[in-house]
Amino acid sequence: MEKKNILYIVVPCYNEEEVLNETTKQLEKKMNNLVEKEIISNQSRVMYVNDGSKDKTWELIEKISKEHEYFTGISLSRNRGHQNALLAGLMTAKEYADIVISMDADLQDDINAIDEMLEKYHNGCDIVYGVRSSRKKDSWFKKTTAQGFYKFMKLMGVDIVYNHADYRLTSKRVLEHFSDYKEVNLFLRGMFPLIGYQSDIVYYERKERVAGTSKYPLKKMLNFAWDGITSFSVRPIRFILILGVLIFIISCAITLYCIIVKLLGNAVTGWTFLACSIWMLAGVQMLSLGIIGEYVGKMYNETKARPRYIVSRNLLEEEK
């Protein structure tokens, strides 16, 4: 008799008590359907990852795990951010599962795409990326900034799947190799393409959030984008080098011009040119130092090698 694959769906949660019951209802229906069709094993689970929530998210996860067969959870010792919470879930789930799918708790990712992901897995893919088919429901600002982000990442030389967030399927062996990546500054959607193995894409229509509010306001989105750029590309530093060379060439030309004017006796004392030059060079220097400082700061964080997360509770282990 053919052994059925154990699937774990990892769902990071931060203050998601408003949406968690509906998420559980829909995922339970999907899990029952997959088990009944014998696509996955009845040992499969949905793993909620409590990322130091300040509301009753963890209490709700404990309640759900007791009342619903296919649900379990882990809790981090404190809030570590979406990427670290997702990583904690992936690294915990790989010890129990053959396949792991990551998705957000807000049900904006179409859970029906899971069927096609599993189909592609059975056809030989170790990574299947969930990709938005369109951004019709986004505001003009969200659409423009998101598309600009992906294009800019490509320009910076980062291998990233366009319009893919963190809705993906990964095989156990991919996660085993992924555990060798020890970066503290995480940008998961840029890290998985580095692993290799056969991959494919599943397109889906992204839905509206069922309840609650987005945990990624503009400030967090900008920080996330900047982390992605500086964690995966050295082109900003190379840009500084090119900019420095250009300014040096311009400075030499201006110096030569000033000497010629002085020798011809046509020099006019003026503050405009001097002031503009000083402010321009000072601005470039500050910008350059800021970018270099960002890289130095990331190196500082990496060399400390502190834990990226600490799992304080694991309901799977407590059930044994």
Number of domains: 2
The name of the CATH topology of the largest domain is Spore Coat Polysaccharide Biosynthesis Protein SpsA, Chain A
What does the main sheet amount to?
Answer: 8 strands, mixed
- Indicate the percent of residues in helices: 40-55%
* H/E series: EHEHEHEHEHEHHEHHHEH
Backbone structural class: alpha/beta
**CATH-defined architecture of the largest domain:** Alpha-Beta Complex
Tell me the name of the CATH class of the largest domain.
Alpha Beta
Low-confidence stretches: none
Question: How many whole angstroms does the radius of gyration measure?
Answer: 25 Å
- How much of the sequence lies in strands comes to 5-15%
Features:
8 strands, alpha/beta, eight-stranded mixed sheet, elongated, 51% helix, Spore Coat Polysaccharide Biosynthesis Protein SpsA, Chain A, 2 domains
Notes on the protein architecture:
The structure is a single chain. The chain is of the alpha/beta class. The chain has helices spanning 20-36, 57-67, 82-93, 113-122, 140-155, 172-178, 188-195, 218-232, 235-263, 271-304, 315-319, and strands at 7-13, 45-50, 71-76, 99-102, 127-132, 164-171, 199-204, 311-314. The longest helix has 34 residues, at 271-304. It is elongated and about 95 Å long.
Task: Describe what is shown at a glance.
The protein is built from eleven helices and eight strands. It is of the alpha/beta class.
Summarize the SSE layout with pairings:
Elements: E1 7-13, H1 20-36, E2 45-50, H2 57-67, E3 71-76, H3 82-93, E4 99-102, H4 113-122, E5 127-132, H5 140-155, E6 164-171, H6 172-178, H7 188-195, E7 199-204, H8 218-232, H9 235-263, H10 271-304, E8 311-314, H11 315-319
Parallel strand pairs: 1-2, 1-4, 2-3, 5-7
Antiparallel strand pairs: 3-8, 4-6, 5-6
Helix pairs in contact: 9-10
